[in-house]
């Protein structure tokens, strides 16, 4: 059953999200194992990554992946990798780790997805299983770059696919597919703001027209503020 954590505001949601990430990183350090985490892009998780950057200790065992990426040039402000770099990696450059596996979106959707899929399989295995996946939620119910009615939302074979004609700019993207997201050992959906309330209600009601709702009972926790919860 999915746990729903409702906090007062976006700052509280960021702190809860950072805590979840930190706990998984610490647990893997204690075990002496690598930890593979897929991160949400967009603006919502930025504050959580800033808070996470303050976490002390070695991150050599931490491998960060992107749940989706926009097909733009490296360093482009629209790139999710740029946001992760600014909010998290740049703040830890004096420390060891983590390793970010960047999507080469500048190659275009198909080539970038193919290369990322190969890298993912080589690093994690033929059936890639993340230790933790953090996902965001769009006002239209999309998650990663899986949009309602779009072919990518129905992809079943490849772990990563290219996206053309996304309803949000830029139209060309790369995304992890639902089977990979559903296989994660732990998954979190982060939603803040009143504009997400309808979509979040649909997810919680199991409206499978919404890609985020198709995570179903594989979703371990929803972290949201009161506005997104409809309170």
Describe this structure in words.
The protein is of the alpha/beta class and 231 residues long. The chain is built from six helices and ten strands, in the order βαβαββαβαβββαβαβ. Helix 1 packs across helix 2 and helix 2 packs parallel to helix 3. The radius of gyration is 16 Å and the shape is globular. The model has no long low-confidence stretch (mean pLDDT 96).
Comma- or semicolon-separated keywords:
231 residues; alpha/beta; seven-stranded parallel sheet; three-stranded antiparallel sheet; 6 helices; globular
Instruction: Please count the helical segments.
Output: 6
Low-pLDDT windows of residues: none
Mean pLDDT comes to 96
- The 3D shape can be described as globular
Q: Characterize the biggest β-sheet.
A: 7 strands, parallel
Order of helices and strands: EHEHEEHEHEEEHEHE
Q: How many DSSP-defined strands?
A: 10
Radius of gyration: 16 Å
């Amino acid at each position: 059953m999915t746990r729903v954590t409702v906090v007062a505001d976006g700052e509280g949601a960021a702190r809860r999200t950072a805590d979840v990430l930190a706990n998984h990183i610490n647990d893997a350090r204690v075990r002496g194992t690598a930890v593979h985490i897929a991160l949400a892009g967009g603006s919502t998780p930025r504050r959580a990554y800033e808070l996470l950057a303050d976490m002390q200790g070695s991150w050599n065992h931490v491998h960060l992946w992107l749940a989706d990426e926009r097909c733009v040039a490296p360093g482009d402000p629209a790139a999710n990798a740029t946001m992760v770099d600014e909010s998290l990696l740049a703040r830890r450059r004096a420390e060891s780790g983590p390793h970010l596996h960047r999507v080469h979106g500048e190659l275009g959707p198909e080539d970038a997805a193919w290369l990322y899929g190969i890298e993912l399989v080589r690093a994690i295995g033929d059936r890639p299983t993340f230790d933790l996946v953090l996902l965001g939620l769009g006002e239209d119910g999309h998650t990663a770059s899986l949009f309602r009615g779009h072919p990518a939302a129905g992809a079943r074979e490849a772990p990563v696919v290219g996206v053309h004609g996304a309803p949000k700019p830029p139209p060309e993207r790369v995304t992890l597919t639902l089977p990979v997201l559903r296989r994660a050992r732990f998954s979190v959906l982060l939603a803040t703001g009143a504009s997400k309330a309808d979509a979040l209600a649909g997810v919680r009601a199991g409206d499978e027209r919404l890609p985020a709702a198709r995570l179903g009972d594989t979703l371990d926790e929803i972290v949201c503020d009161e506005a997104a919860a409809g309170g």
